[in-house]
Amino acid sequence: MQFNPKKTWAWLSLLVLTAVISLVWHQSLPRTSTLAECTIYRAFYNFIPEKDAAFLRPLTSTQNISYYVDEGPHTFSRFTGETEEISLIPDGEKITVTKTEPFEMDTSEFFHPIVNRKPAKLKPCFTQQEGSPKFHAGNLLSAKQSFVALSNDAAYPTLWTLSSVGISEDDSYALLFASHYCGPLCAGGSFYLLKKVSGEWVVIAVRMAWVS
Q1: Rounded to 5 degrees, what are φ and ψ at 195?
Q2: pLDDT (tens digit, 9 = 90+) per residue, 147-187?
């Protein structure tokens, strides 16, 4: 059998290209969430208003996070536990909101995992029981394109995109970034600070990053 260097080189090139594509594809897949992350994702889901209309997906690009805050947010609006009524403009309709107060905390210690870690799978963190969230497997563009279809399943659906979780070294605070999309000119992104209270994670403060 005669050796053909051109054919051999072509086969080797094809194998290398296939391996590179496979590696890139594998790296783009969400990783398995840790047990600690799952407890935080569940706590955040319980915090979301109108949970029955919520869809969840993992964050696939962290560019916008580091753009707004390079070293982690230091200032927050902390929830006081009290409520107040405010009037909406222009119709004057009143709604009840939770009061907040200024709060400062250096989160640079546990901010970097949010930016540097691969996105985590969310679905395995929730049992398939009544009250569990819905999930959107596609990217944000496909979610926007299918927004009308999502509306058939729930009134005023909201797509929540969640980042990886950063946890403080003493396991008492956690930080995640979440953006929401509920239609044209109805979107925003914020950092959410959680604190472990009596062994349970609770969202205690928020820092808005952008709004549309």
Answers
A1: -130, 140
A2: 555 555 555 678 899 999 999 999 999 999 999 888 777 88
Q: Do 192 and 176 meet the contact criterion of CB atoms below 8 Å apart?
A: yes
Residue type (1 letter), 41: Y
The full length of the chain comes to: 212
Sign of CA dihedral 16, 22, 25, 28: negative
Give me the residue label for tokens 């005669």.
2
Give me the DSSP letters along the chain.
----HHHHHHHHHHHHHHHHHHHHHHHHSPBPPPHHHHHHHHHHHHHSSSGGGEEEEE----HHHHHH-TT---EEEEEEEEEEEEE-TTT--EEEEEEEEEEE---GGGTHHHHHSPPB--GGGS-SSTTPPEE--S-HHHHHHTHHHHHTTSSS-EEEEE---EE-TTSSEEEEEEEEE-STT-EEEEEEEEEEETTEEEEEEEEEEEE-
The C-alpha angle 81, 55, 158, rounded to 5 degrees, equals: 65
- Per the omega criterion (within 30 degrees of 0), is the bond before 90 cis? yes
| pTM for this entry | 0.79
* Rounded Cα–Cα distance for residues 119 and 10 (Å): 35
- What's the pLDDT tens digit per position in 118-140? 888 898 898 766 567 888 766 66
